[in-house]
Amino acid sequence: MTPEARAYSQTLGEEHSIWFKISPFLSADDPMGVLMKLLRRRGGCVPITMREEKIYLLSEIAHIRHVLVDHVDNYAKYFDGLKPIFGKAMITVDGVLWQKVRKPQQPYFHPHVYADYLPYLLIAVRARMDQWAKLAAAGETVEALEQTWSLAADMICRALFDREVPFNPTAVFSAVKAYTDVANHRSVRLKKVAGGLQEVSADEAPAQAIGAWLTLPEAVIGAPPWQARENTLLKMMQSAEADPDMPAWDHQQVMDEIKQYLWAGTETTALTLGWALYLLSQHPEVAEGIRREGEQVYGDRDPTPEDIERLSYTRSVMLETLRLYPPAWALIRTAVADDEIAGHKVKAGDRIVLSPYAVHHDARYWDEPEAFRPERFAPGSMQKRAKYSYLPFGAGKRFCLGGQLAQVEVVLALTLLLRRFRPRYIGQVPAPIAASVTLMPRFGLPFKLEQLS
Ligand code: HEM
């Protein structure tokens, strides 16, 4: 294990990490129930003092707009505990560096390039369908997130890097999950606090996870190009590194951007697909609606970019899934200078936790918020919605760069997978949530697959 991996192994669990501080809440049986109860009792801006630190928990749309849009430059990204995962990638940095890193990448996420990516995404989905056919025939129980995470990694590697996935996604992503599961860090920390001498062995799992993670960018770069495409995001980043006029793009920046896409660009998509399959298994009539729509829109041929646009029912299922289970359930910022929110004096250095989950489950913004109703997102519904009441991709200038691409990926995967298979969830209902850095199913999402004729 490298010294770098060892040094990194516990940063999410260090006492100063906000993730460690809120870990008792995250470890609750029903963390989101606790969150919603707290907000109902205390209002939309809850100040919480934790030792020397003040945290403000925000769930009111006016305050969210204040932080993410109107005063965005006063609220810096907080990614302390996640540095080992992301380094100094775009998602973590602010100011001039953020601009220099984001700007040249934007064209690779412009809606007009998704038509170019579609054939590669299709290849990834078809490969997963072949895999599912074998699993269905064998009658095996499958863990949905293993499946959807592998699929998401395959789509990203092919579309953005022109590579086949050059690592074992199941092993790598279970390692990353071990690292981002704050509860793991909490138990290690508590052992240390209690003077336990097992800390070296307890440190082992997160350190190994990070060790594996740090090797991935070189594995991607070193893998043979898949189709030798001229213009890919990976090639652009490598040219930027070689360009003396782009000094922000050093080698580490390229490594960190690749890591960012391999995590922020895959886990979120995988969770969305996993939770969607779970909801569809509970609502077979909605799954039938997706099948019917696919049959009408593209029938027996491959879906085209225009078809993807026309799959509005499938899209509304995805959007409703993201409302109920936003993978990024909390966005964290640090105040740069003093400010005022809802009459509270916010001091420079205070932490701000904004919760898309809380906004999505607030009855002031959503009628019967706990009900799964894709019709809420029927075409034309956006005009009726309160602005900033729907935040699965964040808001303001730090809005998710890959949000549109993720939507194409999820709609394509849902329509094709559902038309050929009937995935049946066999776990506990409702599926309990584990709030770690993302909104995870506590006991996974076990499924049986049935192949349709
Ligand atoms: C359903 C899937 C996805 C969800 C729910 C999601 C969610 C988010 C959210 C909430 C943010 C803002 C974080 C903040 O404000 O602190 C974000 C940022 C970002 N996401 Fe996504 N994301 C998804 C898929 C993707 C994909 C597929 C990619 C790329 C391939 C991607 C790349 C990024 C990047 C680069 C940023 C940072 C943007 C910046 O700081 O300028 N995301 N994402």
Task: Report what the structure shows.
By secondary structure, this protein is α+β, with helices and mostly antiparallel strands. The chain has a single domain, classed as Orthogonal Bundle (Cytochrome p450), CATH 1.10.630.10. Helix content is 51%, strand content 11%. The protein has helices at residues 3-8, 18-21, 23-26, 31-42, 61-70, 83-86, 95-102, 114-138, 144-161, 169-180, 182-193, 199-214, 216-222, 233-242, 251-263, 267-282, 284-297, 305-310, 312-324, 356-360, 403-420; strands at 45-50, 53-58, 75-77, 141-143, 331-335, 339-341, 344-346, 351-354, 421-425, 433-435, 439-441, 446-451. The strands form four sheets. The chain has a five-stranded mixed sheet. The chain has a three-stranded antiparallel sheet with strand order 4-12-9. It has a two-stranded antiparallel ribbon with strand order 6-7. A hairpin with a 2-residue loop joins strand 6 and strand 7. The longest helix has 25 residues, at 114-138. It binds protoporphyrin IX containing FE (HEM).
Strand order of the largest sheet: 1-2-8-5-3
How much helix is in the residues?
A: 40-55%
Regions with pLDDT < 50 over 5+ consecutive residues?
195-201
Distance between the termini: 49 Å
At the first level of CATH, what is the class? Mainly Alpha
CATH superfamily caption: Cytochrome P450
Based on Cα principal axes, name the global outline. Answer: globular
| Ions and ligands | protoporphyrin IX containing FE
Helix-strand makeup class:
alpha+beta
> What name does CATH use for the topology?
Cytochrome p450
Overall pLDDT metric: 90
> Mind describing the biggest β-sheet?
5 strands, mixed
The domain tally reads 1
What count of helical segments does DSSP give? 21
Task: Write down how many β-strands occur, each being a DSSP E stretch of 2 or more residues.
Answer: 12
What percentage of amino acids are in beta strands?
Answer: 5-15%
In angstroms, what is the radius of gyration? Answer: 22 Å
CATH architecture: Orthogonal Bundle
